[in-house]
Design brief:
mainly alpha; 434 Repressor (Amino-terminal Domain); 69% helix
């Protein structure tokens, strides 16, 4: 989900990572669902990418 929305906003991993204050490596792992992150970081991603609430709920339910 994160990768799809990042690409819709024409952002590179490096640009998004810098905007939300995490390393690009951490973002790579999040996009591949290889690790979890803090709620505060997830909120920053959601805000930066304007992810709708229904998409967030679907993602969380997985």
């Amino acid at each position: 989900m994160i990768k799809q929305y990042r690409k819709r906003h024409s952002l590179s991993q490096e640009e998004l990572a810098e905007e939300i204050g995490i390393s690009s490596r951490h973002l790579q792992r999040l996009e591949r669902n290889e690790e979890h992150t803090r709620v505060s970081t997830f909120k920053k991603i959601v805000k930066a990418l304007d992810i709708p609430d229904d998409e967030i709920i679907k993602f969380i339910k997985k």
